[in-house]
Amino acid sequence: MILHRGRRVVAALLLSVVLLTTACSPKTPGRFDQAQKESTQQKRGQAVAKNATQGSEFNKLFPSAGDGYQRVFTQEKKGFAEAKLKKGGKDVALLSISDTTSTPSTAAKFSKSTKKIGGYPAVEVGKTQTAILVGKYQVKALSRDSSFTASDRADWLEKFNLNGLANLK
């Protein structure tokens, strides 16, 4: 009986030593550890320029709802604002305004534009997006449904308060 008790004590001691050594040994780095370390050391909000316009300034420049359309704001942050355009309860388009101060390459794509909407250079991006450049601001309409055509996108871009946007500081 003493022998049996001794084995139990030795087994418990060995188990404790194994658990202690494995728990305290250094962990081998995983494949994502370096990326996690780099991303947490970066300054927050680094992608947005300090002088970018607050997204709340853009909201008043979006077109009003009407003609069976409903406008629902979905995102607002420094340098950007976005609204869904719904018709019959279905998302048909996304409308957005972004400050290109943080992304100068965005504004560069308008330099060779021959098309104008509302008097501003326009570009088609793929088959579902139309964008115009108003000063340093990109105004974009993105079709979410095939019923919302390129012509509809151009019409909605013209409904933005483009003069107000051009005068925004």
Automatic annotation (TrEMBL):
Residues 29-51 are annotated as: Disordered. Keywords: Signal. It comes from the Bacteria. Residues 1-23 form the signal peptide. PROSITE patterns: PROKAR_LIPOPROTEIN. This is Lipoprotein. The lineage of its organism: Bacteria, Bacillati, Cyanobacteriota, Cyanophyceae, Nostocales.
